[in-house]
Write a structure and sequence with these properties.
With 375 residues, this protein is an all-alpha fold. It folds into two domains: 67-204, Cytochrome c-like domain (Cytochrome Bc1 Complex, Chain D, domain 2), CATH 1.10.760.10; 207-359, Cytochrome Bc1 Complex, Chain D, domain 2 (Orthogonal Bundle), CATH 1.10.760. 36% of the residues lie in helices and 1% in strands. Strands 1-2 form a two-stranded antiparallel sheet.
């Protein structure tokens, strides 16, 4: 009798083991953002941002970073269904290996037509101030995230159509549930999720960061370039005069959140009005956002129109190629009126060597930022 009861309990227990094992196998893989097949509920686990030496950023209070929100944003960033013909995603023009930018002078959209400005890099957005895009036309990152979808030169798709495509798929209904507590897909939630993902992309571990932390040493050329970078232009004392870069590219992120005219063209030569297109103010003619110099080695070509293909050409521009215009930034008027920065070939070489210490290979290889749909 005892043997029969034991066999009966074993027989009844096996289906429960199978159910438990099967249920576990259906859970989403926490290491794979694309595996969102499990219909679990709202998950509010915070996403821990790696800030390195940076101060904690001012993340929007109405959109704190969560593991599932960032995961959904990452999926959307790489989702080709955001384009009309399913051929492109945000990542098509913002590639991880190039610090989330495009090495084409002008990115090409789904119809094979180029835009008019060089793609901007996407990292350290959490510390970005005063708008997005070269001209600052998007005040918030969530606003910026949706604009390329409807742009006829980029993804050329209607938001309602994107919402319908995503709503029809279990993987997205479930992931929206995890991120927002509802399976309903909306463009507003898409924007919030993409804002979360882009705010999670950080670059805080370059050789220069390691130098600041005392774990790396700059070589002779890099150190000399560092001194030149931070030293002010001083034509009265040539031996002390520097490249004066820090006025515009300051702080740990090597930018200052402003818009300026950096002497690329005279008023008559100017083909792109820059920030004036947004504000309508003549004082904003030819002003463009100052971008971070982090990872600058990985993000050619340079300037809003990609006119320079090398860092050496960029340094030459500031050294002796500045052009006068009505809105030229005052910090550049001074060297322009005093014969340029007067950098020697050795100065220019060392300055470029220092700029390359701002490259962060962790950014380009971090699996948390990679395509979640690739095996």
């Amino acid at each position: 009798m005892r043997s029969f009861s034991s066999r009966l309990r074993k027989f009844l227990f096996l289906p429960f083991v199978f159910i438990i094992v099967w249920s576990c196998s259906k859970d989403s893989d926490p290491e794979n953002p694309a595996d969102s097949s499990s219909p679990v509920g709202f998950v509010t686990t915070p996403y821990v941002l790696n800030t390195g030496r940076f101060a904690n950023p001012d993340i929007p209070a109405d959109n704190p970073l969560t593991v599932e929100g960032v995961r959904l944003g990452r999926m959307l960033f790489y989702e080709k269904k955001l384009s009309k013909d399913g051929s492109m995603s945000c990542a098509s023009c913002h590639r991880q290996e190039n610090a989330f930018t495009d090495t084409n002078r002008f990115s090409v959209g789904i119809h094979g037509l180029p835009g008019s400005r060089q793609s901007m890099a996407v990292f350290n957005m959490a510390w970005n101030r005063d708008g997005f895009f070269w001209d600052g036309r998007a005040q918030r990152l969530r606003d910026q995230s949706l604009m390329p979808i409807g742009d006829s030169l980029e993804l050329d798709e209607e938001l309602d159509s994107v919402v319908a495509k995503l709503q029809s798929e279990d993987i997205y209904r479930n992931q929206f549930m995890k991120a927002f507590g509802s399976t309903q897909v909306t463009s507003e939630r898409m924007a919030l999720a993409m804002e979360q993902f882009m705010n999670s992309i950080v670059s805080v571990n370059s050789k220069y960061d390691q130098y600041l932390n005392g774990t790396a040493t700059l070589d002779t050329n890099e150190e000399r370039g560092r001194v030149l970078f931070f030293a002010e232009f001083n034509p009265g004392f040539p031996s002390l005069s520097g490249a004066d870069c820090q006025h515009c590219h300051s702080g740990l992120n090597f930018e200052n959140g402003r818009y300026l005219n950096n002497g690329l063209d005279t008023d008559l030569q100017m083909q792109d009005e820059g920030r004036k297109k947004v504000t309508g103010q003549s004082r904003d003619l030819g002003l463009f956002k100052i971008t971070s110099l982090r990872n600058i080695e990985l993000t050619p070509p340079y300037m809003h129109d990609g006119r320079f293909t090398t860092l050496e050409q960029v340094v030459d521009h500031y050294n002796s190629g500045l052009k006068s215009s009505s809105t030229l930034d005052p910090t550049l008027v001074y060297p322009l009126n005093n014969g340029g920065l007067r950098l020697s070939d050795e100065d220019k070489r060392d300055l470029v060597a220092f700029l390359k210490t701002l490259t962060d290979q962790d950014l380009t290889t971090n699996p948390e930022y990679s395509d979640p749909f690739k095996p």
